[in-house]
């Protein structure tokens, strides 16, 4: 009788547990977010639109750990990659594209940003070992999308 009771308890208890959170296929988990490193290039604006089609946004690193993670992965792919930071609205006021909050932690390469009015979008620059550089928003580059970790990874993206 006890083994049957234990089995019933395990079945009932396990069905009450929440689904394990995981990323969509082709996305990489870091902390509480999932990231997609694109295989195609786009302008900064088109990259943002592509991310929104996946119900995500251009990556907006908000901590030193996230900055290091994104830098490392962009460098492993040897690509310059757009992130969701710009000074489009106000020169030299670097903000996250989704919220317009000022970026408190940045990782600009020494001598960057340097583009003044013509370079308003931020990329992880392959020639600067993944450090940030301002860049012309209309240039085609690879990009990084981010989304909050989900418990329903039923979509395949990639």
Tell me which CATH architecture applies here.
Answer: Roll
Tell me the distance between the termini: 50 Å
Count of helix runs: 3
* Helix and strand run: HEEHEHEEEEE
Main β sheet profile:
8 strands, mixed
CATH superfamily (homologous) name:
Mannose-Binding Protein A, subunit A
- In the CATH hierarchy, what is the class? Alpha Beta
* CATH fold node name: Mannose-Binding Protein A, Chain A
Q: State the share of residues found in helices, binned by percent.
A: 10-25%
> Can you tell me the overall shape?
globular
- Regions with little confidence, pLDDT below 50 for 5+ residues: 1-19
Provide the residue-averaged pLDDT. Answer: 84
Structural class: alpha+beta
What this model shows, in words?
This protein starts with a helix and ends in a 10-residue tail after the last strand. The chain has helices at 2-16, 44-53, 64-76, and strands at residues 28-30, 33-37, 57-58, 81-86, 95-96, 121-124, 132-135, 142-148. Strand 6 (121-124) and strand 7 (132-135) form a beta hairpin. Mean pLDDT is 84; it is low at 1-19. Strands 1, 2, 3, 4, 5, 6, 7 and 8 form an 8-stranded mixed β-sheet that branches. The chain is α+β, with helices and mostly antiparallel strands. It has 3 helices and 8 strands, in the order αββαβαβββββ. It is globular. It holds the Pfam family Lectin_C. Keywords: Disulfide bond, Signal. InterPro entries: C-type_lectin-like, C-type_lectin-like/link_sf, C-type_lectin/snaclec_domain, C-type_lectin_CS, CTDL_fold. Residues 30-146 form the C-type lectin domain.
Give a quick precis of the structure.
With about 160 residues, the protein is α+β, with helices and mostly antiparallel strands. It is built from 3 helices and 8 strands; from the N terminus they run αββαβαβββββ. The chain has one domain (about 25-145): Mannose-Binding Protein A, Chain A (Roll), CATH 3.10.100.
